[in-house]
Structure formats: C-alpha cells, structure tokens
Design goal:
The chain has 463 residues and is of the alpha+beta class. The chain has helices at residues 3-15, 17-28, 40-56, 123-142, 165-171, 219-222, 229-238, 261-269, 274-281, 294-299, 340-354, 379-392, 407-415, 440-462; strands at 60-65, 72-77, 86-92, 112-114, 117-119, 149-155, 180-183, 195-200, 202-211, 217-218, 303-311, 321-322, 325-334, 360-369, 372-373, 397-400, 419-422, 437-439. The strands form 4 sheets. Strands 1, 2, 3, 6, 7, 8, 15, 16 and 17 form a 9-stranded mixed sheet that branches. Bound molecules: ligand BES and zinc ion (ZN).
C-alpha cells in the first residue's frame, strides 16, 4: 500500500475538520438511549443515520438489521489491493440515560462547544469514537481507496449489555471473517498519554426485590412488630462487603487470577494521575482493597457496587410509612477468570442465606459480561502503537480498564478474533454522568490515528 494514499487521506481529513465536527454534532443530537422503551424510534433513527454516513463514506453492503430490540448496522469497505487484510470495526451508537438532567450545564442532546470540547450524551461513549472510524473511512474513499478491507459492526444495545448481539454475530459469521477487531470505546490513562487497553472487566448485574408485609403500613401502628423490608434489605447488602469493599460472598475470589510481580510493576509504572482521579470524584483516594493501588483496584480486581436502591417514601418531607417492598440493583465487576453465571449463582445463594424470616426475596440476573484480556504482542498491536504515536506524538502505554465491553470476549470465543482497544477518550469525559464531553482535538487526532492504523496494519500484514 502506497504511502501516497496515506498522505492523501490525512490531507483529506485535515481539509474537512469543520465537516467532521458538524457531522458529530448531528449524530449527537439524536437521543438514542437504548434502555428507555419510549426512545426506541430514536435509537432506530441513529442506526439509519449511521447507515447513511457509512454509505456516504464509500461503504457497500450497508444494512440496518433488526433484532428483537435495537438494530445492528453493518457495512463493508473494500481494499484497493486484492491481498489486503480485513479489520472488523465494532462500536455502539446507543447511549446512556441523561439523568440527573438538572446537573447538565447544557442540554444533553444539543451539543455545546466549550473550551475545546463538545458536551453531549454519547460524545465520548461512543458516538464520537464511532464517527471517527467513519470519517477515517471517508478520507480513504476520497483519497482513492482503503489499504485494508473493513467490516463494520455497530450496535445499539451495548449500554444494556448487548442482549441480542451474540445471536446476530452467530447468524452472520460468514460475513465477519477478519484478521483482527478494532474498537475505540476506551480512554487514555491520562491527558497526553495515549493508551492501548489490553484488559477489561466483566460484569454480573443483579436485582434483588424484597417483599415484607402484604401492603404499606402505618409505621406507628405496625413499626417494631413487623419486619421493615427496606432496613432488612440494607442489612443484607451490608453483609456482602466489608468496610474496604472486599466482597464477602463465599467463593467469590476463587477464580481471580492473581497479579504477577511483573504486572504489578507495569501498573506502578503507568502514568496514572492520582490528583486528576481525586479531582474527578471530589474525594481523596484511599478507598478500596488493602494492598492494591487505585489503578489495580479498577483494572485487575473485582468490585461490587450498589447501583440503585428503592423503597418507601422518597418525596419531599416526611411520611411515616413501613413500606411493603424494597429493591436494589447491584453489579459486580469481574476479572479473569471469573465467570458471570457462576458469580450470579453465588450472589443469589448468599442473599438467600442472609434473608431473615418475614422477608421474601427474589434475585434476578439482569445481564452479564465476561472479562477480557487480549494478546499484547501482535501485528495489530504494533500497528496501533505506531498509529497512536503518529497521531498524538507520544508512544502509547498498555493499560487495563475497569469498564466492560461484552463483545470483546465473544469475538475471541466465537470468531477467534483478537481485539485491539484503541480509544480516544480522556479519564474526565464524564461517561454515564452529567456533562459528558469529547475533546475536539481527541476527535480529530483520533481520526488521523485510525487512518494511520489502517495503513500500518496493511503494511504489517504484507511485511
Ligand atoms: N465505553 C464503555 C466501557 C468502558 C468504560 C471501557 C470505561 C473502559 C473504561 C461502555 O460503553 C460501557 O459503559 N459498557 C458498560 C457495559 C455493560 C452495560 C455490560 C459498562 O461497562 O458498564
Ligand atoms: Zn461505550
């Protein structure tokens, strides 16, 4: 593949930065929140938008495939050379809900440009990063063609645990033959520190519903003589973890792969910015499992979080009620080699054991994802390191992140595909929170980095 087409593609992308930004603003204006049933039509509208951008970018075989919930958008770019390798690009066009909406400084679906960043729900996670791939493809199309074949798989259900993606992948295996998967849905470890992520945590997401009396009761008439399900549920939850957050479910840590001395040295060497970490949360660090650094706790140790807790009177002022029901949403982040189904069973068994007489609990598993570790020494990893250096002027570090991307494990297990996680977010992008942003410089450099990657991977492949 000639360097001339790389240079032309880079030039093309640089000459239309305003267009790339305008397209991102249009994409971010669609409220494609996958978990809210009332917004299903908007999720579909975002899928159609992606498909039309793919077609404009020069892709062929573009389809919007329905699933039982939200569609999968797929399409292909053909390489100019016959012996070129194939890259599968995965991303998601769905976004998280916006609540608490009152804490946004500008409306989440009216992208607002401030201090070099674009603020909108999905800006960093993952629309900005998805669009960077389509912009890179368009640049090659304008420059005479792509150095590699590309298969796009862009889903609308990532933020709800990808419930229909495995079936779609299984049904379309013959269209997905590739040499590597490339995903941009992660962040740098710190500003100015390009990062390739080689590990992600898995997830077991559970819901407990607890039923006490058969109806809400007056707490004066009944309080003290009838078990309160809200308090009882809190006592159960309190026994699932110790004060440092270590999880007290029998067998929970059995499958956790211990960190080797070498890995610990790598974690210690990462440019992890403790001050920025504290600033992002408004709390000085210091919480967590003893004996582990903050980035180890996030990247290589499991965790348990109460994500939601509902019961009783939550309006203004007081109401003396003894509620009939209480519920909690609790998720556990998992690390190799923990299995989400095994962890869900252990969780349920422990909750049942802790349930006192007078309370009926139901435990359901909402979704699960397996943890993932990818190969670090592959031609595609070398291409990514080269591309990030070219795009951001600094060689990347290798890091492990605490979030989950369920497809990474599926791609390896079902399609035999290794993934490269080359993301362009920053740690303070406010993912899943108010004022999510994507920095415009990260976007434009991200596009150029993808252009560089596609060229470098073609070269590695033919070398
Ligand atoms: N982009 C994130 C994953 C992520 C977050 C990777 C932070 C690295 C650092 C992704 O969209 C996400 O939020 N995934 C969900 C998956 C879950 C619903 C199965 C997550 O991690 O909560
Ligand atoms: Zn994401």
């Amino acid at each position: 593949m000639s360097t001339a087409s790389l240079i032309r593609a880079l030039e093309d992308s640089r000459s239309d930065r305003a267009g790339a930004l305008a397209r991102l603003i249009a994409f971010l204006s669609i409220p494609s929140v996958s978990t809210i049933p009332e917004l299903a039509a908007e999720v579909t509208r975002a899928a159609e938008w992606v498909a039309s951008r793919l077609r404009d970018a020069g892709a062929h075989s573009v389809r919007v495939d329905p699933t039982p919930r939200h569609p999968v958008v797929t399409g292909k770019m053909s390489a100019t050379a016959a012996d070129a390798p194939t890259v599968l690009v995965y991303g998601h066009y769905d976004v998280q809900p916006v609540d608490p909406i009152e804490l946004w400084d500008s409306p989440p679906f009216e992208p607002s440009q401030r201090e070099g960043a674009l603020y909108a729900r999905g800006a960093s996670d993952d629309k900005g990063q998805v669009l960077a791939h389509l912009e890179a493809a368009a640049a090659y199309a304008n420059a005479g063609g792509s150095p590699v074949n590309i298969v796009y798989v862009l889903e609308g259900e990532e933020e709800i645990g990808s419930p229909n993606l495995d079936a779609w992948l299984a049904a379309h295996g013959d269209e997905l033959i590739a040499d590597v998967a490339l995903i941009s849905d992660t962040a740098f470890v710190a500003r100015g520190e390009p990062s390739i992520v080689y590990g992600l945590r898995g997830l077991a997401y559970m819901e407990i519903t607890a039923q006490g009396p058969n109806r809400d009761l007056h707490s004066g008439q009944f309080g003290g003589a009838v078990l309160n399900p809200a308090g009882a549920l809190c006592r159960i939850i309190a026994k699932l973890q110790d004060a440092d957050g270590r999880i007290m479910i029998p067998g929970f840590y059995d499958a956790v792969r211990p960190l080797s001395d070498e890995e610990r040295a790598e974690f210690a060497a990462l440019p992890f910015d403790g001050a920025a970490f504290d600033a992002a949360t408004g709390r000085a660090g210091g919480f967590g499992e003893p004996g582990f650094a903050a980035n180890e706790r996030i990247g290589a140790r499991p965790s348990l979080d109460v994500n939601g807790l509902v019961s009783g009177w939550i309006g203004d002022g007081a109401k003396t009620v003894l509620p009939a029901r209480a519920s909690a949403k609790i998720s556990m982040r998992l690390v190799p080699d923990q299995d989400p189904d095994d962890i869900a069973r252990r969780f349920e068994a422990r909750v049942k054991e802790l349930t006192p007489p007078g309370l009926t609990v139901e435990v359901t598993s909402l979704h699960g994802a397996r943890p993932a570790i990818v190969d670090r020494d592959t031609p595609a990893m070398r291409a990514a390191a080269f591309a990030l250096k070219a795009g951001f002027g600094k060689a990347p570090v290798l890091s492990r992140e605490g979030g989950s991307i369920p497809v990474v494990n599926t791609l390896a297990a079902k399609l035999g595909l290794q993934t490269v996680l080359m993301g362009f977010g920053l740690p303070d992008d406010n993912l899943h929170a108010p004022n999510e942003k994507f920095e415009i410089d990260q976007y434009h450099r991200g596009i150029e980095t993808i252009i560089e990657f596609l060229h470098a991977f073609a070269e590695e492949h033919t070398a």
